[in-house]
Each structure stands twice: as C-alpha cells, then as structure tokens.
Write a structure and sequence with these properties.
Elements lengths: L2 H25 L6 H9 L11 H4 L5 E6 L2 E6 L2 H15 L6 E5 L4 H10 L4 E6 L2 H14 L4 E5 L12 E6 L8 H5 L1 E13 L2 E10 L2 E9 L14 E6 L2 E5 L18 E5 L13 H9 L5 E7 L1 H5 L11 E6 L2 E5 L3 E3 L2 E3 L1 E5 L3 H17 L5 E7 L11 E4 L3 E7 L8
Parallel strand pairs: 3-4, 3-6, 4-5, 6-7
Antiparallel strand pairs: 1-2, 7-8, 8-9, 9-19, 10-11, 11-13, 12-18, 13-14, 14-15, 15-18, 16-17, 19-21, 20-21
The structure holds S-adenosylmethionine.
S-adenosylmethionine (SAM) binds next to strand 2, helix 5 and strand 4.
C-alpha cells in the first residue's frame, strides 16, 4: 500500500470507529461531545500501536502491550473507555480548552487526544511507572508530531512536582484507593477521573475536589489494567467450577473446602416480582446490591464466567464479567440473568446450598428495594482516612488505606423525574 492509500484507509477506519463510538454513546443514553469526537477523528491511533495491523488499531478494544504471566499490565486503552472518560472530564470542567492536565498511565494515544482538547493555552503531562512505556510514549508522540507533551517516569502514588497543581487528573489504570497525592495535586475545584474498585466492582468516577474531600459527579462502567507500585492491590480469582470463578479483593478469604461442588447442589431461585421495560438502565443495581450485601452475614464476592459455562447451563449470571454474589456457610447466591415475559423483565437470584431459598430471597428483596426507591444512582464521597465516623455523610462506608469511601444512594422523591 502506498503512503497516500495508507493514510486514506487510516482516515476511513478512524471515522468508522468514531461513528461506532457515537452510536455506542447514544445507545447508553450518553452524548459524545463534539470536541471529543473531533479529537478522536484527528489523532491516528495506529501511530500508538506499532506492529499491529491497521484495521486492529481501529477496533473498539484495548491493544495489549505488556504481560506479567497471564495478567495484562499495560495497554493502549479501548477507544470507548477513553471517549467516555474524556467526556466525563469535559462535562465536569465545562470543556477542557486551556486546562492543565495530568494523565496517569501513559501510552501516548490518550495524551495526544488530551493535547488536542486543551489547545495551545493548556498543558498535558503524562506519567507512567514503566520506563519501557514512557520510552514508547515519547517515540510515538514524536512520530505523531505531539512534541509538547511532558512524559515522566515515576510511581504516580506520589506527587510528581511539589507545588504543581492540575485542573484535571485522569487515571488510566484501575485503582483500589485514592492516594492523597491525587487530591493534593488538584486545583481547588479540580476534577479527578479515576477507575476505582469498590466491593470488587470497578467504575470510572469523575470526582470534584471540595477541600480535603472528593465528591463524584458521574460514573461509568469500565475495566482497566491494575495500578502497580506502592498503590498496587491484588485481585484473585478462585475456580468454583469449570469456567466459573469468584473474583476476590485483596485480603478477602473464602473457605476453600466449601467451594468444591458448590454449583452441583440443587438450585433455588427467587424473583423480585417487578416488570421493567426493555432498555431500563440497571448500571447502578450491582453497586446497590454490593453496598447492602457486604454488611450482611457472609462474604460479598463477584462471579465471573466463561461463555462455555453459561452455554452449558452451569451458571446463568446477570453479566458474565461481574455479577454480585454472596457466599455464606456453604450457600452461594448470585444475581441471575433477566426473566422476560411479554417484552418486560423481572430481576432474580439463583442460589445453591443448604440455605439457598433464603439467600436468593434476601438478594431479590434488595433488588425490589432499589426499584421501589426509583433506581437511584450512587454518589461517591472520598474522605481522608482520619475522618471521624460522625463527620461521614450517610451511606455505605468502605475503609481503604488512605481514604474512607462512602457510597450514598439518594432515593428519588415520588413524582420527580
Ligand atoms: C491502560 S495503560 C495506559 C494507557 C494509555 N493512557 C493510553 O493512552 O492508551 C495503564 C498504564 O498504567 C501504568 N501504571 C500502573 N501503575 C502505575 C503507577 N503507580 N504510576 C504510574 N503509572 C502506572 C502502567 O505501566 C500502564 O502502562
């Protein structure tokens, strides 16, 4: 292919990718902001994925760059995630022109999109813990002509330049906690966009700084390679059947003797008795369940399953990549796939074990309560670890190393939209 043909093919594929992203946003009830769309149509993604065929560079998927054993530790993030997170940032700040931005987790692609968005009066600094990644980012940014991005190699757990503050910090690795440096490097009402894991469920939160606290303004479904270095926190998977796993957070223990044959026990099911129309957004139900079930007896865990196990009928989870589940005294319960009747659906739970019927029943009670409360969305408050209980807002509290996280669901008033 000649250089001219290559670049027109690149442009065609890029525009097709952005058209798909716009449609994907619309299907989720989101709007792809025009300036984010413009940046995505401008930056050639293939320049950040050298060695990868042109068409693959424009698939809506992460391009994995580095592995540790079976775990991916670095990638060029999936375009839909990048687009949604840039949208969260731009919505929170009312646009990114002229803003000073720190990106945590380099690669070059997102940094160039940010460079397009902040314009000549703004600045972009990108930091990565891995010298190979920063080396590659510097080379790719130079090839693409973005020579005014500052690339730093360091552990972003710690401040990068004392006294330097940013309007936006955008984290592109999955975090377990919010280190103080991220809050302290923000301007007074600056915004942190971060994929954060709570109760084993990762979402990208746009958090605004309010003094020594951060409060979320939006959240999106997402998945990322994990933060490494001083802020690293392990995720573990244990198998409970062929192709069926429990995702456990750091420090979480389950009794291995109860796992064998767990799903081979007879299945009980319970239904919430709701009748919801197609396209009802359920994105916030899992965190509602997690925040409530965590405080009941037993362990809250996340179930993941391979397609083959679902097709074989071993499990029928609500989502194969992360379904709320509980494990208590040898009884396992999880949120099931939806049950459809006359183009409307009900929410259910399946359970196996000695207390199966009761466990499934408890789970659907929480689902019914969420629907009855008007399907509320969570607001996340991040407070310093020394905050006394009496100063916490109402909500489910999760203590991490540096912060106290409070997830508050405010029920909608009856009659309000
Ligand atoms: C998904 S990749 C970043 C993708 C990139 N933003 C892009 O434009 O495609 C995540 C990166 O985070 C980096 N990372 C993980 N922990 C880090 C830490 N503590 N400090 C800085 N970088 C870190 C990894 O080395 C990895 O390269």
């Amino acid at each position: 292919m000649s250089v001219g043909t290559m670049s027109s093919e690149s442009e065609r594929l890029r525009n097709a990718m952005v058209d798909r992203l716009a449609a994907d946003h619309a299907a989720k009830g989101l709007t792809l902001r025009p300036e984010v769309e413009g940046a995505l149509r401008t930056v050639p993604r293939e320049l950040y994925t050298p060695g990868v065929p042109l068409n693959e560079a424009y698939e809506n998927a992460a391009v994995l760059k580095k592995w540790r054993g079976e775990e991916a530790i670095s990638s060029v993030s999936a375009p839909f995630l990048i687009a949604e997170m840039l949208g969260q940032a731009a919505d929170a700040l009312g646009g990114l022109a002229g803003r000073h931005v720190l990106e945590i987790g380099s690669g070059g692609y997102n940094a160039s999109l940010l460079r397009e968005l902040v314009g000549s009066s703004g600045s972009v600094t990108t930091i990565d813990i891995d010298p190979q990644v920063t080396g590659r980012a510097v080379a790719c940014l130079a090839t693409a002509g973005y020579d005014d991005v500052t690339v730093v190699c360091a552990d972003a757990e710690h401040p990068i330049a004392p006294g330097r503050r940013y309007d936006l910090i955008i984290v592109t690795a999955g975090a377990w906690d919010i280190p103080p440096a991220w809050r302290d490097q923000l301007t007074d009402d600056g915004v942190l966009v971060v994929p954060l894991r709570m109760f084993g469920i990762t979402k990208s939160y746009a958090l605004r700084r309010r003094g020594d606290r951060l409060v979320s303004e939006s959240h999106r479904q997402c998945g990322f390679v994990s933060v490494q270095g001083d802020g690293a926190h392990e995720v573990r998977y244990v198998d409970i059947a062929e192709g069926v796993h429990l995702r456990l957070d750091e420090g979480q223990q389950v009794d291995p003797t109860v796992l064998d044959g767990l799903l081979a026990q007879p299945r009980e099911e319970a239904w919430a008795g709701v009748s919801l129309p197609p396209r009802t957004a359920l994105i916030d139900l899992n965190l509602w369940l997690a925040s409530r079930l965590t405080h009941e007896a037993g362990e809250f865990v996340v179930l993941t399953a391979q397609e083959t196990a679902i097709e074989a009928g071993v499990v029928a989870p609500s989502w194969q990549f992360g379904t709320p589940a509980t494990l208590h005294d040898g009884t396992f319960a999880y949120r099931s796939a939806l049950r459809w009747t006359d183009r409307r659906f009900d929410l259910g739970a399946y359970a196996h074990g000695p207390e199966a019927a009761a466990a499934a029943g408890r789970m659907v009670e929480h689902m019914r309560a969420w629907v009855d409360a008007g399907s509320p969305a969570p607001v996340l408050h991040v407070l310093p670890s020394h905050t006394p209980d009496g100063d916490l807002p109402d909500g489910a509290v999760l203590d991490k190393r540096h912060s106290r996280l409070v997830l508050a669901f405010t029920p909608h008033e009856k009659g309000t939209p």
